[in-house]
Every structure is written in C-alpha cells, then in structure tokens.
C-alpha cells in the first residue's frame, strides 16, 4: 500500500515539475510525502528481516498469551523489553480492590 502511495507521489511530482509555471506547493508536498513513505517502507522491511531470539520462558509466554492474538515475535520483543517482571509471593496482593490501574498486569503463573 505504501509502495503504491509513494509511486503516486512520484508521478504527481513528475507531473507538477512538467507544468509551466511550476507550482511549488504540490512539488514540496509530493517530495515530503514520498520521503515519509519511503522511510516507513524502509522501517517495515528492516523489521521483517530481523530475527528474534527468545529464552524458553519468553517462548512459553509468547505462545500462550500473545501468539494466539496475532502478535508477531518482533512486536512481542518490543513489549517484553518494556515490561517489568515482578515475582509475587503467595498471599501477597497484586492489586487492591477498587484501585485504578496505570499499567497492564499479566499473570503468567499461579
């Protein structure tokens, strides 16, 4: 989709460059739009080429809680890297009743 959009912007750029007198606003817009789309295409391609190495524990969490919802390994890696892992002792409260949460809590065991 982005490739088609970038191609359209390049075509628009060529068209507006061929007009006499040249219209600066559409030319600038086409250059910026093509640049942004090209950068996003590069980001997507780079993300797809990367490999993700997971520990056994990470693989279990990914397959049980994330993979079933269509989360890619690369997306899981980003989420996991931002996560704070907390081990709670038996009987310890995780959340108090009526407490407003500021974060997502995922209980994986227990």
TrEMBL record:
Signal sequence span is none
Q: Does the keyword Methyltransferase apply?
A: no
Example GO biological process term?
Answer: cell adhesion
Q: Which UniProt keywords apply?
A: Cell adhesion, Cell junction, Cell membrane, Developmental protein, Glycoprotein, Membrane, Tight junction, Transmembrane, Transmembrane helix
Topology relative to the lipid bilayer, per the entry, is: Multi-pass membrane protein
Recorded source organism is: Entomoneis paludosa
Q: Which family does it belong to?
A: Belongs to the popeye family.
Name-wise, this protein is POPDC1-3 domain-containing protein
Residue ranges occupied by any POPDC1-3 domain in the UniProt entry: 2-104
Q: Which GO terms describe its cellular component?
A: bicellular tight junction; lateral plasma membrane
Classification via Pfam families: POPDC1-3
Where, per UniProt, does this protein localize? Cell junction, Tight junction; Lateral cell membrane; Membrane
